[in-house]
Amino acid sequence: MSSVLSDRQFHDEAAAYRWVEARIWPNGPVCPHCGGTDRISKMQGKSTRIGTYKCYQCRAPFTVKVGTVFEASHVKLHLWLQAIFLMASSKKGISSNQLHRTLGVTLKTAWFISHRIREAMREGNLGPLGGNGKIVEADEAYYGKASDQSPSAQRKGRPLLKRKPGTSNKRAILGLVERGGSVRTFHVIQANQHNVASLVTANVARESKLYTDESRLYSGMGNHFAGHGTTKHAAGEYVRYEGGDVIHSNTIENYFSVFKRGMRGTYQHCAEKHLHRYLAEFDFRYNRRVALGVNDEARAASILSGVVGKRLTYETTSAR
Fold first, then answer.
1. Whose CA is closest to 224, among 243, 242, 184, 197?
2. Which single residue of 51, 109, 111, 251 could bond 17 by disulfide (Cβ 3.0 to 4.6 Å)?
């Protein structure tokens, strides 16, 4: 993709299909129904839809959209490409309302598109962060009100009538970042020592050094890693030098700063059941940031490489 929205694939449907086909099928068309690559030909005729092929092994017609987040969508493919580029190049995200105005589609359609692009941004099969001599920072953040109120012992397990201030009734997010590398975030139902320890030990290599603040959630972490350094934020300590090490958790806090600015300023409303998708979006952009040599064009192309095999089939009238 270009760094500007003036290339032909963003405005011409046939060019959009050719552009996507060249990247999803670099070695030629592949039938999504039987997996065949032989005896496939492009269908011709005035009434034939753009980009339609027929597999003469299973006799089924198909396009490059089948088996991707584009499948069953009536939105033009060149508009999908515009939306992908806009989401890839917007550091703090782009709202469904903005996509609705920019692309000229309905608000519900813009919401549909943005969530399916977030699904394409989702990364799987990830190995542990860090490694020998590497540093991983961990921290938790709280954003928005939890859908379920915490039970009250005084009310015999029934929810509180009013939410207490603080973090007890907020959505908890655990963040892990390798210095100079990737970030990984998780929405946890409850940020307690057991849940946090399970996620940290499962996602950080044992040879790493772990740096956190003084939170009790990370007590005993030194037993699982090459080292565990902490800073005492309550005492105004945000950086500590110990030998040749610079101990702080400022990197992950900077990530959360961008995330919260995007959620409050751009998205504003987010149902808790969708929070993990927004986290995937911000993780994706951070892991392909300019500091790692990734520009808007490469970031958008990376989204396209993740569209295959991912579909969201639920429907909703929510515009959030």
1. 197
2. 51
Is pLDDT above 60 for 150? Answer: no
Q: Please classify residue 285 by burial: count the beta carbons closer than 10 Å to its beta carbon, then call 0-12 exposed, 13-18 middle and 19+ buried.
A: buried
Summarised one tens digit per residue, pLDDT across range 5-18 is: 888 999 999 999 99
SS3 34: coil
Which tokens is 73 given? 């969508």
Give me the architecture of the 135-284 domain, per CATH. 2-Layer Sandwich (3.30)
Q: Are strands 227-231 and 209-213 parallel, antiparallel or unpaired?
A: parallel
Whole-Å CA distances, 280 to 29, 92, 115, 150, 184: 30, 13, 11, 26, 8
Cβ proximity of 174 and 199 under 8 Å: yes
71 C-beta neighbours (distance < 10 Å), count: 17
Distance of alpha carbon 276 from alpha carbon 261, whole angstroms: 17
What are 29's two structure tokens? 């068309």
For the record, the structure tokens of 96 come out as 């469904």
Token readout for 189 is: 């139902």
Strands 245-247 and 240-242: antiparallel
Tokens representing residue 211 in the block: 């740096």
Instruction: Please spell the DSSP secondary structure of 203-263, one letter per residue.
Output: HB-TTSEEEEES-GGGTTGGGTSSEEEEE-GGGT---EEETTEEE--HHHHHHHHHHHHHI
Q: Which residues, in sequence order, are CB contacts of 180 under 8 Å at separation 6+? A: none
Please, are residues 272 and 146 in contact by the beta-carbon 8 Å criterion? yes
